[in-house]
Amino acid sequence: MKRCKKWIGTLLVSVSLITVPVGAAMAANSWQILAYGTMAMVIVKQQLVQLDAGRQNQMLAETQKKTGVSHDEAANQRLDNIHANLMKTGMIKRDYKMYVNPSQDMNAFETIGGVISINQGMMNALTDSELAFTLCHEMGHGEHRHAVNGILKGIAVSTAVDLAFGGNGDLLDILFGGLAVNYIDNEVITMDQEKEADATGFNILKNTQYNVGGAPASMVLIYEKYGNLYTEGWKRVISPNNHPKMSNRIERLGNRMTRWSGNRVQVGGATVYVNALPVVTPISFGEYSSCRRAYLVAGNLARLTHEVYGEAVQKDVPQVRSTSKAADWQWNILRDGSDIVVNGTTIMTCAAGDDQASIIKNLKLALYAKADMLNENKISSLQEEWLKTHGYKEKKKETLKNKNTSIPAAERSEHVAG
């Protein structure tokens, strides 16, 4: 027990998790083992909370040391601008330090201390609205202290294993030694926390001027590049899932967009519906797939219908027009070059192959149609049908790996994307 107390005392005077020394294994009776586990958890929680609340600069330095820092001034300025716009919502309570790292992979993460890093590859590939949702999602993790809670949950499991093996401190020592790497790599975030961050992120995004369709559209792009990122069958035992299926995230975020639109705008597969009538199935254009463009078009339409009908109270009932709106509400739909404009807002920029005249005709019918929507089963069916035909295949990996996903600055507008 003396060795246990000495080990705990060493932890208490440690200045950070990163400098915690390896402890010694101990043999003890059941009461001592229980006390050891309880005290260890108290110490870990105290240190994690302290690190999260008061050592942001330390965590920024540690994270930047691990990932490197991109020297792309335009990318860092773009990140700063979007961050500033999101802060204007007043919904973000923590202070965050953000930077771009040089990795070309599609990833972003939030660490203890409120440090957020976006990979250069993601900066290159996403539109501003898609990137805004990515930041909203990561700040959702920070607002809920997911990094702290995730690490604590992981330690609790490891401590239980440690106790089951008779108080072998080596297991806990290994855990402590790897903590710094684990939370920087965002390996401690659970599936439920990912769902909560998506929900929080969308709630922030819908209070900005960004296209809410950027939320599901960003997930579409990641799905097209990496697949569902979800382990099936027995492999889950070896590699447990900590993220929901990408296809499920796309559908849930699409449903949130629909509800925000007053249950007037939906995406089924790669087709945009308004009041249950098909409006457009955009063609693929450059780096924008048909499905990704559909969500961006739907997001633009969702903002317009939201302004008239508000957000739906029930998930399956179209919202009625606000009494403050005129009974003879008019939709001004016109062509402006290759753009389709509704009430002064550009809904999409048509590419070669998009039937602009038909889209305008469909919009006029759908926007004036009686309130209606496709039920969830129909939307899910359309989603599954699209996945079977256009879904991620293993054979695509090499092609996508070699494909340049960068979008020229002039083409990052949602108008070009649809």
Automatic annotation (TrEMBL):
Entries under InterPro entries matching the protein: Mito/Outer_Membr_Metalloprot, Peptidase_M48
Q: GO: which molecular function terms?
A: metal ion binding; metalloendopeptidase activity
Q: Which Pfam families match?
A: Peptidase_M48
Recorded protein name is: Zn-dependent protease with chaperone function
Which processes are annotated in GO (biological process)?
A: proteolysis involved in protein catabolic process
The lineage's top-level taxon is Bacteria
Give the family per the record: Belongs to the peptidase M48 family.
* Cofactor remark from the record: Binds 1 zinc ion per subunit.
Keyword Hydrolase in annotation: yes
Signal peptide extent:
1-27
Among its keywords, does the record have Transcription? no
Instruction: Give a GO cellular-component term.
Output: membrane
